[in-house]
Structures are given as C-alpha cells and as structure tokens.
Amino acid sequence: MQTLAAKSAPKKNLSALKRDRQTEKRNERNRTERTKIKSVIKAVEASVKASEKDTSVSALQKAIKTISSASSKGIIHKNNASRKISRLTKKVNALSKTAEA
C-alpha cells in the first residue's frame, strides 16, 4: 500500500523523515484496530440474526471491550464508540425479549 510519505516530495529534514515513519506505524496500528472493531460488530450482528441468545451476549461483551479500548486509545471518538455500543446492545436486548415471549 502506498503511503502518504511516498506521495509527497522527498523530505530532507531528519525530523520530517521521523514523523513520516511514526505516522506510517500509527496508521497501520489504527487500521488493524478499526478492522477488529468491524469484525466484532459483524460477529454480534450475525449471532443476533441467527437468534443465538448466548452467543450474541458473549459476542456483545467482547465487542464492548474492543470498542471501548479503541475509544480510550483515541482510534475512534468516544461518541462514536458509545453509539456503536448502544446500537449493538439494543439489538441483543431485542433478541432477549423476543426469546422470552
């Protein structure tokens, strides 16, 4: 994957080169975290769609942990994290109510 540093003009300043290296590392780290978030959300939604109550509850707990962790690291905004957690919890709770009825 072509990075931002490769697109811009070649830099000669040592601090600019270091910033490019740091940015590249951080972007890669953040990208993997965002991918993890998407994966756990899909796992929760799949278990809800399959009406698996126990699986969806455990998947929700894992998702909450992953999303909160990313939020505290600054990878996603805290409001974004809260919104994702709220929507997932709402889906799992709706599944629980339909299972009881």
Structure, described:
This protein is mainly α and about 100 residues long. It has a single domain (about 15-100), classed as Ribosomal protein S20 (Methane Monooxygenase Hydroxylase, Chain G, domain 1), CATH 1.20.58.110. Helix content is about 80%, strand content about 0%. The protein is built from 4 helices and no strands. It has helices at about 5, 15-50, 55-70, 80-100. Helix 2 runs antiparallel to helix 3 (about 55-70). The protein starts with a helix and ends with a helix.
Q: Secondary-structure blueprint of this entry?
A:
Blueprint: H1 4-7, H2 14-49, H3 53-72, H4 78-100
Helix pairs in contact: 2-3, 2-4, 3-4
Question: Distance between termini?
Answer: 51 Å
Shape: elongated
The average pLDDT value, as a whole number, equals 91
Radius of gyration computed on alpha carbons = 19 Å
Strand content: under 5%
CATH architecture descriptor text: Up-down Bundle
Q: What string gives the helices and strands in order?
A: HHHH
Supply the CATH class. Mainly Alpha
| Biggest pleated-sheet summary | none
Q: Can you say what the CATH homologous superfamily is? A: Ribosomal protein S20
Number of domains: 1
